[in-house]
Design brief:
Two copies of one chain form a homodimer. With about 250 residues, chain A is α+β, with helices and mostly antiparallel strands. In chain A, about 25% of the residues lie in helices and about 30% in strands. In chain A, helix 2 crosses helix 3. The structure holds a DNA duplex (19 and 19 nucleotides).
Chain lengths: ~250, ~250
DNA sequence: GAGTGGTCTAGACCACTGA
DNA sequence: CAGTGGTCTAGACCACTCG
């Protein structure tokens, strides 16, 4: 049985990959149903005359794709596709726009040094009221249409001059890297929905109270200290978030 | 040198895990900076007197955490934390609410059989104008406050009776599974921002034109055919999306 | 050609589950 | 207890990169 389920040991395609694809096919075609057990690793190894380590490499691909789950002492079982609360790939807003083929353009509305206030002290977890921040206001446009209005803050250090013309990378990460000698390694983003204020509506050229996304981003350094904060207003009529979910496929 | 960088080969903790954590620590402490090369696999294996396969297992943990990248023929290099367009964990709205400790309650406002229309034919990719759908309207509440209004559609098959009292799992996935003998394995969600219509405002008890999230979900079966569709209206003042990004840590 | 990571083997011992 | 997956070894050969 299973005549076409063969593996070419002399192929340039790795054995573990051929085997993973073979098992993935059986699962996707429903020949192996959720809850069912895969053949044991030893069985598969004997059947295809390959090493058990190679079988394990193949199965580990399926595990990381979320299609099967191994249980020590029991066996390896086909998972039910979990359609919630899983790892997903979220395309960055801006890359999404560029894919469509529009030209993106960032305009710096202003850059200045500001004193701290209670909000910034809370966000950046600092006590010193003399701390000063660099404050940037930028607008992202595509084809002369304004899409995003963004306010960005990072610590001010006298080390480097702030020349507006000198800003190569106006993203929050870029500004932090340019102004303080720190590498942001993690971030937290909060996405909310709101309606445009008068100022936001004016800058983006949309009606007051039009729906907008509000995306706050907080950047952290290696020691989990906040090093940058931004608040971005996205036009609600131009942005949407698309999320794909379910079993990840191996490779493509 | 590096006295504390040791591995206990007799520990219950796997060697590959100890080594992965050791290397992760060096990267997080900045002893290995982005762009720098790790020692070669053979070097590490000799240094700790372990097998190269075990070293590879450790490094593969770092690779899947996105902290390093291996390049055949060249070496293994510490990655720069990529703070955009990466895999992220998106908590499901509802699970998020339950974590806070609120009791969730789903009310079924109605369930009926409807004829198809041009919108449903487009969404479900069908041609037959005689197709009929099951149409559910539900409301999700927490502590007597209405949070989400949802309209759900799935194919109507006469196989099973539709008893409202019989609905155990009112999620879209649950309804699809209950009504047609099909297992949804993947989904596509689109998140948009909008303002509440008159009907939505009435049902959710919010002002007309209040900001809301609109989440459309399309469920697919094994053959990538749409089997369920829902459109959910989330109160904008009660929901937000939090996204963590950057280097994933190994385990906890 | 020397050195790197990528694949693969044929064993071994262990920890865990279930009858 | 027999059978499962989890870890580990000490080799081997390959494909790739770069001088």
């Amino acid at each position: 049985m299973n005549d076409e389920l063969k593996i070419d040991k002399n192929s340039v395609i790795p054995i573990y990959y051929q085997l993973a694809k073979l098992l993935e096919g059986q699962i996707l075609r429903g020949e192996l149903k959720p809850g069912e057990a895969l053949p044991t690793e030893t069985e598969i190894a004997n059947r295809f005359e390959i090493s058990r380590m190679t079988v394990r490499r193949a199965i580990s691909e399926l595990i990381s794709a979320g299609m099967v789950k191994a249980q020590q002492g029991k066996g390896t079982f086909v998972s039910s596709p979990k359609l919630n609360n899983v790892f997903i790939e979220l395309n960055d807003f801006d890359e999404e726009i560029e894919k469509i083929g529009l030209k993106l353009n960032t305009t710096i509305l202003g850059a200045k040094i500001v004193k701290t206030d209670s909000r910034l002290m809370r966000i950046f977890e600092i006590d010193d009221p003399n701390t000063r921040f660099l404050f940037y206001r930028t607008v992202l446009s595509a084809d002369d249409e304004r899409l995003v209005y963004e306010c960005k803050y990072t610590f001010y250090t006298k080390k480097k001059p702030i020349l507006e013309s000198n800003i190569k990378d106006p993203s929050l990460t870029g500004l932090v890297k340019a102004n303080i000698d720190v590498l942001p390694v993690s971030s937290k983003k909060v996405l909310q929905v709101s309606v445009a204020t008068k100022e936001e509506a004016r800058i983006l050229g949309i009606p007051i109270n039009a729906p907008v996304f509000v995306a706050e981003e907080l950047l952290y350094d290696l020691e989990k200290k906040p090093v940058g904060w931004s608040k971005a207003i996205y036009r609600g009529d131009r942005y949407q978030l698309t999320i794909y979910d379910g079993w990840l496929r191996i490779d493509n």
